[in-house]
TrEMBL record:
InterPro entries: Cyt_c_oxidase_su3_a-hlx, DUF420. It comes from Allomeiothermus silvanus (strain ATCC 700542 / DSM 9946 / NBRC 106475 / NCIMB 13440 / VI-R2) (Thermus silvanus). Keywords: Membrane, Transmembrane, Transmembrane helix. Pfam families: DUF420 (PF04238). This is DUF420 domain-containing protein.
Amino acid sequence: MGQTLGDIAATLILLSGLAVIVGVVLIRRGDRVWHPRVMLTATVLAALFLVFYLLKWGLYGTTRYVGPEEWRGAYYALLFSHTLLAALNGPLVIWLIYNALKGRFAIHKAWARWTVPIWLYVAATGWVIDLILKRYGESAGGIRF
Ligand code: HEM
């Protein structure tokens, strides 16, 4: 069950990253109708990811890295950068949407230049971390069903 929740979460974050790429392509093509729709879909997918991730965390606890020692530093650097930028991404996305809905597109565009790469980094590393822990992870506690 814990593995299933993790797989769902990893799929959702990956889909949200893909939706962001599609949303950027759409606005580059001048599509002001589908750009917001696709970006809001990406936001919902990221929010759903958070729900499944927190559910897994709450029910099954965290997963400890038990892979090769020489990769431990690199793994934790990846995990730290992922977590930090994921926390930053939330307020940035709310700010982006707020400005877009207010019609302040110059501000929206300026912040989007930073937010999009951060979002894509978070999505890609989240997926990579899930793959690493599938191979080299060990449950660090929590309730198991
Ligand atoms: C989190 C969600 C969003 C992200 C990540 C995002 C991202 C972006 C990016 C990267 C650009 C600039 C593309 C370029 O380089 O030319 C852009 C432009 C734009 N976005 Fe968004 N967007 C989001 C949500 C929205 C929403 C909800 C709306 C509408 C209500 C919207 C409307 C626009 C418009 C109209 C532009 C063109 C601005 C201009 O060229 O002056 N966006 N967005």
